[in-house]
Amino acid sequence: MVEESELNRAVAALTAGQPVVFPTDTVYGIGVAVGLAPSPQAIFVDKRRDANKAIPWLVGSSAALSRYGRDVSQLAFDMVSQFWPGPLTLIVKAGDNVPDAFRGPRGTIALRMPNDPVALELIDRVGFPIATSSANFQGEKPPQTLASVNGEFAAQVPVVLGDDIPRSGVSSTIVDCTSDHPQILRVGAITADDFKMLL
């Protein structure tokens, strides 16, 4: 159970544009609020990672697909209807209201609605998606529990939020939906067989 006071501290930090460590349904993540932080740069710095990849967004509802995506296919909406909330990340063309600093190199955005009450509560209270990567230094294993978040990593972040429940540790499946033929870029908790009814 996450303490209300800690949740409030996390919301305050995100609202101020600062990064926060928090649990998702897959692993613990580090994130900044899109629209409140100027860019995802703090995530790259804390992870000691080159800023050569876009950071996926965690969103609070399926409506985010229309709000932030452009020319989104019916198939993408069908996948969201079946697998959100859950471990499915969809890459779509970024809409006009996606800040340049948060777009992928091809003008795309990756969206996922996590099946985790803490993550969803944060997103709801902040009022913006949270650009999120796993809460670990590059090359290290993503943490499944609060206790396994590297102490040195946690010390860099204003707020580290968590509870006693281990997360799955299984990455989300990533599907590129920017063309007429969706491509599975990474197989995670959802397999190709799970998509058979849709693809």
Structural descriptors:
199 residues; alpha/beta; ten-stranded mixed sheet; 6 helices
Question: What can you tell me about this protein's structure?
Answer:
The mean pLDDT is 95. Helices cover 25% and strands 21% of the residues. With 199 residues, it is α/β, with parallel strands linked by helices. The chain is built from 6 helices and 10 strands, in the order H-E-E-H-E-H-E-H-E-E-H-E-H-E-E-E. Strands 1, 2, 3, 4, 5, 6, 7, 8, 9 and 10 form a 10-stranded mixed sheet that branches. It has helices at 4-15, 41-47, 63-68, 74-83, 117-126, 151-154, and strands at 20-23, 28-33, 57-58, 69-70, 88-94, 108-112, 130-134, 159-160, 173-176, 183-186. Strand 9 and strand 10 (183-186) form a beta hairpin. The protein is globular.
Approximately what portion of the residues adopt beta-strand conformation? Answer: 15-25%
**Unreliable stretches, pLDDT < 50, 5 or more residues?**
none
Distance between the termini: 39 Å
Approximately how much helix is present in the residues? 10-25%
- Provide the structure class: alpha/beta
Mean of residue pLDDT values: 95
The dominant shape is: globular
Output the number of helix runs. 6
Please give the largest β-sheet: 10 strands, mixed
Give a quick rundown of the structure.
The chain has helices at 4-15, 41-47, 63-68, 74-83, 117-126, 151-154; strands spanning 20-23, 28-33, 57-58, 69-70, 88-94, 108-112, 130-134, 159-160, 173-176, 183-186. The chain is α/β, with parallel strands linked by helices. The termini are far apart.
